[in-house]
Prior knowledge:
Layout: H1 3-17, E1 26-32, E2 35-42, E3 45-49, E4 59-65, E5 70-71, E6 80-84, H2 88-94, E7 103-107, E8 112-113, E9 118-121, E10 128-130, E11 132-138, E12 154-162, E13 164-165, H3 166-172, H4 176-180, E14 185-192, E15 201-206, E16 209-215, H5 223-231, E17 241-243, E18 251-253, E19 258-263, E20 267-275
Parallel strand pairs: 6-17, 8-14, 9-20
Antiparallel strand pairs: 1-2, 1-5, 1-14, 2-3, 3-4, 6-7, 10-13, 10-18, 11-12, 11-17, 12-14, 15-16, 15-19, 19-20
Amino acid sequence: MSRKIHLQISFALKSYFKLEYPIIMKIVRFSADTKVKYGILDGHKIKVIEGKPFRHIKPTGHMYPRNEVKLLAPCEPSKIIAMGLNYHSHAKELNLSLPNSPLTFLKPSTAVIGPGADIVYPSISARVDYEGELAVVIKRPIWRVPAIDALDYVLGYACFNDVTARDLQNHDGQWTRAKGFDTFAAIGPWIETELNPSSVVLETYLNGKLKQRGNTADLIYSIPEIINFISNVMTLLPGDIIATGTPSGVGPMYPGDTVEVRIPQLGTLRNFVIKNNV
């Protein structure tokens, strides 16, 4: 594509979305003035937009300094569809055969937390693991979309931590309880709208020490294949999250720990592990 055509397309898109800044955006959801708002992160400022970012993105003209607001989970999903065993390195680590089709499970929307929030260690679990992942956020309803068109339905991408009570997962044999505790779906710090998801470096740090390092080039099923597969099972709605699987290196964390999922293009999702005193 020539630069002239690229600029023409960019101008047309900016006119359609009524934007005053480049199409590459960091979409945030935040709390300010006792209200929850969506905005575009622009350096140290957040430009507030009207409503939610799924149908159109229109600035209101209001801004907040980033350090004066509280960043929240960047979306409110009706559901989280997560992938089990979707990295070759993770399958090798566990000495498991590759799945014949994508292995999916659900996490409830009540598990969602944002950047800087606490992961609560359940009192009934003796081992809670981090699982750093790349998350896909859906922008419009999807039903039976072909893989070739799947990325057209993606609003953007974010860091994700698929927190898991490993001992309960092994005990139950199915994953709802182990993956579904409140605070077990950390996402953030924002949604990045422009990313090539086919080769993304992902790292997880525990108390500053590198524990996981993978690349989405190692995915067993690509993101378009995952979206196609899931959309042939259920309707995906705006704001829904797809967690695309974790690379090798998963391990335990404990109250007092700090866990970070880092993706260079997407920033750092940092959360703190605390004890459940109930």
